[in-house]
Design a protein that fits this description.
By secondary structure, this protein is of the alpha+beta class. The protein has 15 helices and 25 strands. It binds one RNA strand through helix 1, helix 2, strand 11, strand 14 and helix 11.
RNA sequence: CGGGGUGUGGCGAAGUUUGGUAUCGCGCUUGGUUCGGGUCCAAGAGGCCUCGGGUUCGAAUCCCGACACUCCGACCA
């Protein structure tokens, strides 16, 4: 069929070449455009709208929890960056440094922020003096720069937009609570807004954030069974505070170092949405974050009253709080149907002369392709319930895939075999030794994704060295 | 940063082996037609063939170099 042919040429089938499929979707759905600087991408209106919705949703949530937004400088003096040894080691190699036209060559070098811990520390060293100043719960929505060697749309930008939360507390308990709380906020975003099931866990020392004492993560399985880290939350202890000389006077008039956290999500989540939900026809947007939840398409618009009646439906949808738009262009119906499938709009509301006679409209859902003929008076309620249903269905499908592709194994040979045959996440016992972790990478080609919060609690043998231990660790191939 | 692939109107390609002044489809513009799954017809616009050197009477085509994109590794949200 001509229709199939065109779709194939538009988007590479997902199972044929996942990477190419991803690139096709990103470009064809007009989420991104390549810029003239390698690794720097243009977020087009539709792509940015997704990020805006994530921002709005999260920003409100952070504020509810008492966080305040701030804006830190973009440049970091080299001396600041050098203060925390592990942190520098992690980030210095990918820092970009600025030089100015007529500047004094002896002037201190300035890095473009790869992340802003050092800036917050510098600020707090000056402004935090008493227990009464704590906690500070800050957040900023900014872009950061990391000179990555290879880049991919959404998954690895040299400049990417994110949100970085930074908090400072009087006690380790309070800071740890913040770290755990924010991970759960992210998990809620993923599961209840993006329909992406996640595995909550803790990073190993090898994989944790440079300078952190502990890193929590959400690992999400993409359609190709690879893992995408979809949110992280770090507990710093008072390591940074010591290096940056941040102290406060406690209630007993003693000097103490405070405890810090940081946490972040980025536009990478959009890559996750695409790779978890997308199909051969393009993007499938989770309804709660979709920039457009329903598009109204007048069918045979030249016929008496169709356009007016369609506009009325649009107005009703908007009034009901559904993000909707109408397509009144003279493109054919088939073109429109295919176009909005590519863009992943959750619902398509069709209204034609035949519908008008019967007092109904046709609603098609993106996730399953099912069509419903709905009495016009039920439009709002049906759309609202369908959007919820779509969310639930998308989540369930992704959760099923996660479950079906998560395996338990005894030895590294088993892991290797599973990865060879099927791919996915594999959980084994691990003794905690970093050498074993590195060996697993060499022998089975997987890295540790996390030590899941959900532990079996059984005793077993480390999959690499065979030592008796109880810790479950999850392995996978990461993006 | 190592290994492969690619670079030709907005997009996708042919042409490159065997040098001779650029072709096709989609899209775009205009007019008509059609409209319940990528309508059809007609007329148009749009390209220093990624960039820089070289060879040649003549280069998209041959040679050297650079850059970009892309895939696979290593590194990272």
């Amino acid at each position: 069929m001509a229709q199939d042919k065109k779709q194939v040429t538009a988007i590479t089938p997902r199972d044929k070449d996942f990477a190419q499929w991803f690139t096709d979707v990103v470009v064809k759905a007009e989420l991104i455009d390549y810029s003239s600087v390698k690794g720097m991408f243009i977020l087009r209106p539709y792509g940015y709208a997704i990020w805006e919705n994530i921002m709005h949703q999260q920003d409100a949530r952070y504020k509810e929890l008492g966080h305040e937004n701030v804006a830190m400088p973009m440049l970091i003096p080299e001396s600041l960056l050098l203060k925390e040894a592990e942190h520098v080691a992690g980030f210095a190699p990918e820092c970009a440094w600025v030089t100015f036209g007529g500047s004094d060559p002896l002037e201190e070098r300035l890095a473009i922020r790869p992340t802003s811990e050092t800036l917050f520390c510098d600020h707090w060293a000056r402004t935090v003096t008493s227990w009464r100043d704590l906690p500070k719960l800050y957040n900023q929505w900014v872009s950061v720069l990391r000179w990555e060697k290879t880049s991919r749309p959404f998954l690895r930008h040299r400049e990417f937009y994110w949100q970085e939360g930074h908090t400072i507390h009087a006690t380790p308990e309070e800071a740890m609570h913040e770290t755990e709380q924010m991970l759960e906020v992210y998990a809620d975003l993923c599961e209840n807004w993006l329909a992406m099931p996640v595995v909550r866990g803790r990073k190993t020392d090898k994989e944790k954030f440079a300078g952190a004492e502990r890193t929590y993560t959400l690992e999400c399985m993409m359609h190709d069974k690879k893992a995408l880290q979809s949110g992280t939350s770090h507990y710093f202890g008072n390591g940074f505070a010591k290096q940056f000389d941040i102290t406060f006077t406690n209630k007993n008039n003693e000097q103490e170092h405070p405890y810090q956290t940081s946490w972040g999500i980025s536009t990478r989540l959009i890559g996750g949405i695409i790779m978890v939900h997308g199909d051969d026809n393009g993007l499938v947007m989770p309804p709660r974050i979709a920039p457009v939840q329903a598009v109204v398409i007048p069918v045979a618009a030249h016929k008496e009253g169709v356009t007016e009646a369609s506009r009325e439906l649009l107005a009703r949808l908007k009034k009901a709080g559904i993000r909707a738009k109408i397509d009144e262009t003279d493109n054919s119906f088939g073109w429109k149907a295919a176009q909005y499938e590519m863009l992943g709009y959750p619902l398509r509301v069709e209204l034609g002369p035949k519908d008008m006679e019967k007092g109904q409209c046709c609603i098609a859902r993106r996730d399953t392709g099912e069509k419903y003929f709905v009495a016009l008076e039920d439009l709002e309620s049906k759309c609202a319930s369908l959007l919820d249903e779509i969310h639930d269905n998308m989540y369930a499908a992704a959760a099923k895939r996660l479950e079906e592709n998560t395996f338990y194994a005894e030895t590294w040979q088993d892991v290797d075999e599973i990865m060879e045959e099927k791919g996915g996440f594999v959980i084994t016992k691990w003794c905690g030794d970093q050498d074993c972790e590195l060996d697993m990478k060499d022998m089975a080609g997987v890295s540790s994704r996390c030590i899941p919060f959900k532990q079996r609690g059984t005793e077993g043998k480390c999959a690499i060295c065979g030592k008796t231990c109880t810790t479950d660790i999850m392995w996978g191939v990461a993006y």
